[in-house]
Amino acid sequence: MVIRQPVQWIGISMEEILQSQDLRLEGSVYASEARQIKQKIEKSKYGSRHLSDWVTTCFYPSRFKRDYRKQSEQTIGFIGSAEMLSVNPEPQKYMTHNDEVSVKYGQLLFSRSGTIGNVTFVNETLSKFLVSEHAIRIEADEYIGYIYAFFKSSYGRLISNSLTHGSVVSQIEPEHLLQLPIPNAPDALKTQIHEQVMDSFALRDKSNELLQQAQDLLQKSLNLPPLDAFKYPNRQAETWPISVEDLAGRFEAGYHNPVVHRIEAHLQKHAKQVSTLADKSLVSEISLPARFKRHYVSAEYGIPFLGGKEILELDPRGEKYLSKKQHADLIENQLLLKENMILITCSGTIGKTVLVPKHWQDWAASQHLLRVKPVNDDVAGYLAVWLKSPWALPLIQRHTYGSVIFEIDQYHLSEVSVPIVDSETISQINQLALEANALRTEAFEKEQETLAMFGSIFDKS
After folding, report:
1. Taking the model in full, what pTM does it have?
2. Can you list the alpha helix ranges (DSSP code H) found in 137-230?
3. pLDDT score recorded for residue 257
C-alpha cells in the first residue's frame, strides 16, 4: 500500500518575490516553517536586526589548487568543514602556510556546501589549522558568541537552511546569511550569552592542553620517537620475508607491516611490561553490537544515536534518535554508552578513538563502534591516551580486512599491544585524561545553558 504524503504549499505575493535580493523562486526559500521562524524572530519582544548590522566580515576563500605535503614542522594541518567541528581536530592532510585558508581566533566558521549550517568558533585549538573554502568566515567587533548561539540554535539552523541553492550539491552564500534577522536582545543578555560561549570554548582548549600533556608524558616514559622513525627511510617499495609460522592465517602485506613490528619491539625494550587489550586486569570486555534494523523516532520518544563519523565532536547528536520502545533490549544490553567506556571506529575509517564523557552517559552508539570497557576508572584514561596515540594506530589498523569497506572486530582489537609503564606515570596520565573529559562535559553543559538562555528570548513577555 502506498501512503501518500500531503503536498506542502504556501501562498506568497509577487511583491515579496520581487523584494527579495535574488528573485528566489524555490519553494524552500519561502517554506512555511522557516517563514514562521523568521516572523517569530522579527516580532520577538526585543525586535531584530539583520546579520549585516552585526558583522564586519563575512566571506569564504576562492578555490585554489591544493598542494598537499607530508607532515613536518614546516606544514600545517588542513581540515574541512566537517572536521572543524571536532573538539581537537586530527588532520589527515597537510599544507604549507596559506593566507587564503588560514583562520584566526575569534572568527565563526559556517559550513556552506553539502551539509549546510554547521557552525563553530575559532578557539586557540582551531586557530592552528588551515580550513577549506567550504567554510564561511564571519567576524564581528562584539557579541560573536551571541551570533554563534543564534546559528547553533534550532531557529538559526532552520532559517539559514531555507536559503540554500543548488540541485546537486546544496550551497549557501555570504549574502544570503547577511539577510538573516537576529533577535536584538538587551546588551546585558547578549554579553552574558557571548561570555558563556567564550567560556565553553576556553574549556575545550584546556581539555586539549591536558590531553597533550598526557600524550607527552606517555611518549617520554616510553622514549617514543616520532612515528616516521619507524617507517621505511626512503620512497621505494619495502619488501620483507615472513616465515610460515608467523602468517597467523593472514596473507595481506598490511597485516605484517614492519612498522608494527618495530613499534612492538620498541615497546618491549622500554616498557616495564607489554600486555594486550585481552588482559582482564586492564579490560573487562570488548564488545561489538550486532547489525539491526533501526527505528528512528522524534527526540521525545528515543535516545541519541551516535555514528562513528561525529564521535570526535563535543556534542555528536544529530537528528537520529533510536526508538526506546522498539529497541529496549538491544539498547540496554548492547548499545548503551557509559562514562569512561572507550569507543573505537571499526568500519570505514578505522581507529578513531574517544573516551566517553559523562554527558554521553546513556546515549546509544551504532554497531560501527567497538566498545572497550576498562576494568575500572584507574586505567580508563591511560588506555584511552595510548589507543588514541599515533603509535597505537598502526597496531589497530594492521588487523583491517575487507576490499570495499574496511572492518575490524572485537577479536582483532583484543590482540592490540598495551605498554605498561610505572604505576605513578600511569596514574598521572590517567588523571590528566579524566580531567580533560570532565572539562569537556563542563563545556557541553555551558553550551546547553547558553542555548536555553538564547531560547528564552522568545518566551512571552
Report:
1. 0.90
2. 144-152, 154-161, 174-178, 187-221
3. 86
